[in-house]
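Throughout our pipeline, every protein is held as a single compact record rather than as scattered files. Nothing more is needed to write down the fold, since each code stands for a local backbone conformation. For reference, a complete record is included directly beneath this paragraph.
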Amino acid sequence: MPWTLRIPQADVLGGTVTFLPLEEDADRSVRIQTSNVYQIRLSRSQQEWFMSVSIVCPEHWHADGVVHPTPTWLGEILLARLARWAVGNRPSGFKSTLSLVPIARYSQVYEELKEKYRPMVKVWPEVTDPAKFVFEDVAIATYLLVLWEQERARLGVTERQSFVDLGCGNGLLAHILCSQGHPGRGIDVRRRGIWAMFEAETRLEEGAITPDDRSLFPDADWLIGNHSDELTPWIPVIAARSSYRCRFFVLPCCFFGFVGKYPRRQSQKTQYREYLDFVTEVGQVCGFRVEEDCLRIPSTKRVCLIGASRTYPAAQEAAVDTQRTQYIHSQGGPRGPLQDHKPGPQHASAEPAAPEDPAPVSRDTQTTEAQSAAPEGLAMGAELEPVSRDTRATEAQPTAPEDPAAGAARGLWLPAFQPRERAERVRNCGTLPRDFVNQVVLQVAGLLLGRKHVCPEGASQDQSGKPWNPGGSLSLADVASELDRVTLQRLKRECGGLQTLLRNRHQVFAVRDGRVHLRDWREELSTRATRPGLRRVPDTDAFKTRPCWFFAHHPDGCALPAAHCPFAHGPGELRPAPTRTSRRAGQPPQPVPPESPNSWPEKS
């Protein structure tokens, strides 16, 4: 299998480091991949040091976001980190990347899997970013495969470890592990469309996991929690109670305690570091020897915690489990009667063994509308442009709080625990009534236009030379203070509230550093023309499927002439939207209905 390896070539006197990617072709010949050569330079001018990064052949650069970074990442993220590392002297508080596995073996397996699953990027049916999620799951699977490979070699066994992926999400991680010969399954509260793409040997089950005696997995060697949210602190507990030989791997992301969000307790640490320490503590109380490592994935939350061995012999299981129960209830919120876990036969019959090396076990088995009038100077119109699909994120929320006594009756280890809902609730302002959203947009725009412009020249001019008022800026707090109580209460029920609504109206507003401005599309087009790494502006010749808000509502109209504006100036410029590919596997493409001319907003 061909592989890729990057060799750094340092020129100490010249102050440069050149990274040369070497790749092996099918004939096992090694050559330099010239399209992906880049160089970092450190130079000094008088009393200042400068750092720069350059790409040798930018026109041929190939980026996958993991092994080969994007130019934007090199220029905006890598340089900033290098500068911070160069002047900082504080320890990071984290282990070095891939400290528990051999890097050479990891790189080899990763390259093999990356080539095998690269085609999935083109057919990814979910709304998430395919490049990030495919290559991230490939990297996590690579880490587990190499880790388990080391474990088999250490124990002198050949049977591949079994697993259960709790909160498996899209199921790709479970699919990769199964495809590599590891028996296992993934469980998630909600079925995903991509599941239909996987082979029959990949077992993916829809169901909720609750911490009780019915959610034990005595036949599994490993439990996996990859961004498992509210299940994250419970996975060490479930692993410990499933069997003495069960181990766990968790990659924490969102901060959940045993019941609800994790409350911060130490201001001296970052929230991320504190939460990692909390999950580590849970694993240690459960009797695991917990190790920490950093994965090589395109994510800011990349620290994993591994419980691969126990700190006590199997004969002490009952005593250790009593300590677990006491700890869980000391950390929980409102709770009902204490629910003691009764160790099952998998613990009682376990033979005492060296705690450091557990052998793998074979797998047998509505609301009031805001009624304030439209701000003076703005035309009341009909529909605004729909929210961009890129801004529509969903957040699964826990169910309504349950009576702890009812939870105790169901046998929950901590009765106050609430699993997440099977159906995701969209709370990013995307489901708010359009009339309500339009009213808020008009009101905020009126507030901005009523402010004096920050530039000393006053009102600017559009491209035809006529005056055009870009408005002023207001803090989010100032905007909120001008909205009525009913509107604010309705927005507070959405994730991000007012800020999310304004950000969703990307055509109208720009929100930067906590302040709101009207978006000036003259500056927008100019900036994006000089910075190609930014998100592309819709093409004026092909994508005029939305009306121009400024043309319809701004007292001075649009600052751009119709030929240059990416949005339609009047019904005659509207074009039918292109057919979009269905997000779910097995469904035909769905045409996007065109904007109705009857709903075109008229300017007063």
The chain has a mean pLDDT of 78. The radius of gyration is 28 Å. The longest strand covers residues 16-24. The CA atoms of residues 214 and 347 lie 15 Å apart.
